[in-house]
Design goal:
By secondary structure, the protein is α+β, with helices and mostly antiparallel strands. The protein has one domain: Thiol Ester Dehydrase, Chain A (Roll), CATH 3.10.129.10. Helix content is 17%, strand content 35%. It has 2 helices and 7 strands; from the N terminus they run βαββαββββ. A 7-stranded antiparallel sheet has the order 1-2-3-5-6-7-4. The protein is globular and about 40 Å long.
Length: 160
């Protein structure tokens, strides 16, 4: 099936995210999909400031937790593409992180909302390679690349 353009930009809220990615409740870290197309997604969140953020340790949220934020954006992107193709949402697993650049040591002291961007740069039916970055306003927080492996044995696929 050849894909044309995605549907018009519609901001998808937290409820949609919880229904389409594996993370629920407080572990669903993203609050909104700001925009997306066939290769890229942009999401927004303020959960990094929440005192009950499940990734906090010793009262702080380390910048490396941004990898989980990016992973959830990648999962949302995969769900959107699956919906466009009318195929099941495949469970993906983070297989590698490369070229990670941390511009800050922690996220919980960032006052602005985070914008999480993930761009699919390669892949096939079994794997995907994404570039990602997190920003707050004009401030770059972290960036890198992540390798995703789909459909490990015993996983369930979901319909979008």
């Amino acid at each position: 099936m050849s894909l044309t353009r995605p549907p018009p930009a519609v901001r998808l809220q937290r409820r949609w995210l919880e229904q389409h990615i594996p993370h629920q409740g407080r572990m669903c870290l993203l609050e909104e999909v700001l925009g997306w197309d066939l290769t890229e997604i942009r999401c927004r969140t303020a959960s990094h400031r929440a005192p009950d953020n499940p990734l906090r340790a010793r009262g702080r949220l380390a910048a490396v937790a941004g990898i989980e934020y990016a992973g959830q954006a990648m999962a949302a992107h995969g769900a959107l593409i699956a919906g466009l193709r009318h195929t099941p949402i495949r469970t993906g697993y983070l297989a590698s992180v490369r070229n990670l650049i941390l511009a800050v040591s922690r996220l919980d002291d960032i006052e602005a909302d985070l914008v999480v961007r993930a761009r699919r740069i390669a892949g096939d039916a079994e794997t995907a390679l994404y570039a990602f970055d997190l920003t707050a306003g004009e401030q770059a927080l972290l960036s890198g690349r992540a390798g995703i492996v789909f459909g490990a044995p015993g996983t369930t696929e979901r319909r979008p």
